[in-house]
Amino acid sequence: MTEQADNASDSGQREQARAYQSTKLRITLITLAINLVVPLVFLFSGGSEGLRDFSEGINSSQWVVVAIYLVVAGAGLQLLELPFEIFSSFVVEKRYELLKNSFTGWLWDWVKGTLVQAVLLTALISAIYWLLRSQPDTWWLWGAIGTTVLLLILMALVPIVLMPLFYKFEPIPEGELKDRLFALADRIGTHVQGIYIWHLGEKTSKSNAAVTGWGRTRRIIISDTLIESSTPQEIEVVMAHELGHHVKKDVWKMMVVQTVLVFISFFVIDLALDTWIDSLELRGVSDIAGLPLVITVSVVVSLIALPIANWLSRKVETAADNYALNLTGMKDEFISAMEKLGDNNMSDREPNKVVEFVFHSHPSIQRRIDFAANWKPN
């Protein structure tokens, strides 16, 4: 009876995880549709030109016009998406007992995240439209270079500036786990600035761990929820996977992929502006009223590239799993760690193959478990 009860419990938990992931996917698809349809409706209805004219009525400076346009249009899009964001990130997470945060706490995090995103996007798009005005023939090249540099800077700043806006971090205390992880980093010759406990448990029951930053900002972060649910050996093999990414230069490999995507996106946007600017009766490529076209093209290019980028990411993740297993030999610990991560994060163990191919940056939990079960030292 006990074994049957356990099997029924596992089956029920997996069905619940499948339902959770299905709901999250539907909201993601709705948000994608909003980001495709709304800009086009705004453009073809004349709303974009109207907002440009309104902005020019306030101030004739093109820098100010672009800033006003971005603030108003961005606020409108955020308001359209907010109900779906509340449902996906608060209601659904509460329904499945993953979120511990209150609505006030959740809303404050959403406001902070939105403001950070707004500042970065306003700066980036303002710079792009300055390039469109001053370098109309080569703007896309300089824009792609600048965006790539910005991404590199953000990679370094994430662990020391951005993440602390949302979570508390503290150095890991003395003990077995700290000794294990520093010994692991020393063993493979990877310098880390420090090992920090990531207080994720104040807001969610999900677990996570990562090696973030690069250069002097590189650090190991481990969620308190992972520490509470896992043994030191399980955490060690998980971190062997994360450190393996740095040993194999995976961060930079994926950065190359991201850079290629950025350059392709800017080039295609340039072609789209040259092709359609007259038919849309806009003033020229630097007309801020053409921004909805820029957004639409960017989203389409990203969607086309998404399956390819995720396929490459899954290959990299499998290689890191293999590295961790070869480094530690902890086959059983790796499997149990994946089991716990899957349960804590309510992962769909065996997602639809099409969904996995298009949307998943990591192999499914079951694929990773099967890989470890069949692993042989090499």
Short summary:
The chain has helices spanning 2-44, 47-58, 62-95, 103-134, 139-162, 176-187, 224-229, 232-247, 250-276, 291-328, 331-344, 353-359, 365-373; strands at 169-171, 195-198, 209-212, 219-223.
Structural features, described:
The chain is mainly α and 378 residues long. The protein has two domains: 11-168 and 246-373, no CATH class; 169-238, Metalloproteases ("zincins"), catalytic domain (Zincin-like, 2-Layer Sandwich), CATH 3.30.2010.10. The protein has 13 helices and four strands. Strands 1-2-4-3 form a four-stranded mixed sheet. The protein is globular and about 65 Å long. The model has no long low-confidence stretch (mean pLDDT 91).
Residue-averaged pLDDT, rounded? 91
Total domain units: 2
Largest sheet: 4 strands, mixed
Portion of residues within helices: over 70%
Give the low-pLDDT segments: none
Distance between the termini: 42 Å
Strand proportion: under 5%
Secondary structure layout plus pairing:
Blueprint (H helix, E strand, L loop, with lengths): L1 H43 L2 H12 L3 H34 L7 H32 L4 H24 L6 E3 L4 H12 L7 E4 L10 E4 L6 E5 H6 L2 H16 L2 H27 L14 H38 L2 H14 L8 H7 L5 H9 L5
Parallel strand pairs: 2-4
Antiparallel strand pairs: 1-2, 3-4
Question: Which keywords apply here?
Answer:
single chain; 4-stranded mixed sheet; Zincin-like; 378 residues; 4 strands; 2 domains; mainly alpha
